[in-house]
Design brief:
Blueprint: E1 6-9, H1 17-27, E2 31-36, E3 53-57, H2 63-77, E4 83-86, H3 101-129, E5 132-135, H4 151-158, E6 164-166, E7 169-170, H5 194-201, E8 211-212, H6 213-224, E9 233-235, H7 239-248, H8 251-261, H9 264-281
Parallel strand pairs: 1-2, 1-4, 2-3, 4-5, 6-9, 7-8
Helix pairs in contact: 1-6, 2-3, 3-4
């Protein structure tokens, strides 16, 4: 009888990339330990395949929670882990000049430091199985794609561009972000273009064409399970396109493009007009 292969996935939810990866890996007869901050968000999962499915509570920012998950995983798998998928993420969208420092810290605590803490804790089990670490990153973290208004999120994703560089995927991510629903504050330097910035932070202005999560997971898992998996997996809408764009396009051209397409140039013109008007009154 073939030995079971085990994957542990953080941040699993029904309509997200973690949930899609769980279903796809189970479909490849890879047993999965699905984890999330609460077991309630994992209730929808049903073990209806040959591969085994286990559910664990795991808060990637809590040392105690991580230690408990490692102990439980050792019991479940017999002390090994073939895949660790660092999928858990936190989205705080806000222009950097308006951002709450504590919420920026939470972005990094989950998206960077939590990822590293989990990887360190599970490394002995991965080493035992000669396993693979898969980090969920984003095209927003690619050099040159310094998109205005969501720097708080992009900065945390740039810190982990290692394996899964994911473009736009049709999930419920934008329904759970922090900051966007409140909009920019009245003290924001972007207030003259508030309507645009608020829509950007809510994900309402993203281009059409995103794959659904199941399609994305199928492509990503195929790459990960290949005999020679690439160091970086570009999947999701515009991920490959943006890879080439950032490689071929000078940074100044990307900056100009974002300034023009995100109303920063318009804001500059408006502020200059107000400045001239103020000088005339003096």
């Amino acid at each position: 009888m073939a030995q079971l292969r085990w994957a542990l996935i953080t941040g699993v939810s029904q309509y997200g990339t973690g949930g899609a990866l769980t279903e796809e890996l189970l479909g490849h007869n890879i047993s999965v330990i699905a984890t999330g901050p609460t077991l309630k968000q994992l209730e929808y999962l049903n073990p209806n395949r040959i591969a085994k499915l286990e559910k664990l509570e795991l808060d990637v920012t809590s040392p105690d929670s991580i230690a408990a998950a490692v102990s439980a995983t050792e019991r479940i798998t017999g002390g090994k882990l073939d895949f660790l998928v660092n999928n858990a993420g936190y989205g705080y969208m806000m222009p950097l000049m308006d951002a709450d420092i504590n919420k920026i810290r939470k972005n990094f605590d989950v998206n960077v430091f939590g990822l590293l803490a989990v990887t360190q804790a599970f490394f002995p089990l991965l080493r035992e199985a000669k396993g693979m670490v898969v980090n969920q990153a984003s095209i927003t973290g690619l050099p040159g794609l310094d998109q205005p208004y969501i720097g708080t999120y992009s900065a945390s994703k740039r810190a982990v561009v290692v394996t899964l560089i994911t473009g736009d995927v049709a999930t419920h991510f934008w329904g759970h972000i922090d900051g966007g629903d409140q909009g920019i504050p009245d003290s924001s330097p972007y207030l003259p273009i508030k309507a645009y910035v608020d829509e950007m932070m809510l994900g309402k202005l993203k281009p059409k064409g995103a794959k659904n999560a199941a399609e994305w997971a199928k492509s990503a898992v195929k790459d990960l399970l290949s005999s020679r998996p690439p160091a970086r997996v570009y999947r999701g809408f515009l991920s490959t396109t943006m890879r080439w764009v950032t490689w071929l396009t000078p940074t100044w051209a990307l900056d100009w493009s974002f300034a023009s397409s995100t109303n920063l140039s318009k804001l500059k013109t408006m502020l200059k007009a107000e400045e001239r008007k103020g000088r005339k009154k003096q």
